[in-house]
């Protein structure tokens, strides 16, 4: 069955064009933006430490807030970075409102298991490696690496001192490097394309949801 | 070397897994947007109607109207048909009962209109509107990006 011209044109358009159309109220254009970026946004929230259902709820709220404030998007960076920023703020706000133990200084709450990670985790399994970090390290590292925030911005968003943020990121990064088999060559993994379509070999969160 | 490793981890962060329920999620977001839009438009329409009705009541004046009610529109038909035959009288009485009901309703409405023109009603509605406005602004501040 042939697809409608509108559907095709939305898929062919760039984010900038789609945002331009969505600002005027086009739900089709915004729907395409949701399709492209929902995977990356949901993954970002899970990597920050949100549970599956929470992550999806916050991602949904983020898209709805973004649609209403789309005119405030200044095209100073990628659209997904803006979405990640909104989602991160909402998640951190939720954590602070729930007074979760994330921001406490009691390190014993975050003790990680002593046993070594299973051998298969030494593959490029970032998500499993992130689970080994303390919650606060996970948040700081994800904000820095996934949302692309500077150390100063991470400190501003979390409300932590800059030195503490730097320590968390360094410790988290060291742990990630030891947990992951990081190649010394420049053979970087293939990043997902802008439309968020990952290859079939990429892991899914379906197991986690079940 | 360290930079290479950092770039490698950064690139790993850029990879997002495929979600089996991506179309369902997309549909959920779009339905949420549509629902919110409908709700907002519905609220605007309802407040417009209420506001318009309120403004209208401020201009309506009922001549010789009183909150006590009374026989302004009742009883005239009865007087006019007192001496006719029984069938016509029964019909007229039926119409009179209907008219009485209508008149009573009109009196009730008139009573409400009069009440809506009192200063008490103005201050109650003004206070309610202010509360709603404050709640709206608070919610807006919460929703700020």
TrEMBL record, chain A:
- Protein's recorded name: RNA polymerase sigma factor
In Gene Ontology terms, what is a biological process of this protein?
Answer: DNA-templated transcription initiation
What is the taxonomic lineage of the source species?
Bacteria, Pseudomonadati, Pseudomonadota, Alphaproteobacteria, Caulobacterales
Tell me which Pfam families the record gives. Answer: Sigma70_r2 (PF04542), Sigma70_r4_2 (PF08281)
Family statement: Belongs to the sigma-70 factor family. ECF subfamily.
One GO molecular-function annotation for this sequence?
sigma factor activity
Q: What PROSITE patterns does this protein's entry cite? A: SIGMA70_ECF
All copies of the RNA polymerase sigma-70 region domain together span 33-99
Please list the residue ranges annotated as the RNA polymerase sigma factor 70 region 4 type domain. 125-176
Q: Where is the composition biased (Polar residues)?
A: 183-203
For the region Disordered, what residue ranges are annotated? 183-210
**Entry's PANTHER family?**
RNA POLYMERASE ECF-TYPE SIGMA FACTO, RNA POLYMERASE SIGMA FACTOR
UniProtKB/TrEMBL annotation, chain B:
Keyword entries, A-Z: Membrane, Transmembrane, Transmembrane helix
State which residue ranges cross the membrane: 38-57, 121-138
Task: Answer yes or no on keyword Transmembrane.
Answer: yes
Q: What is the protein name stated in its UniProt record?
A: Uncharacterized protein
Species of provenance: Asticcacaulis endophyticus
Traced from the root, the source organism's taxonomic lineage reads: Bacteria, Pseudomonadati, Pseudomonadota, Alphaproteobacteria, Caulobacterales
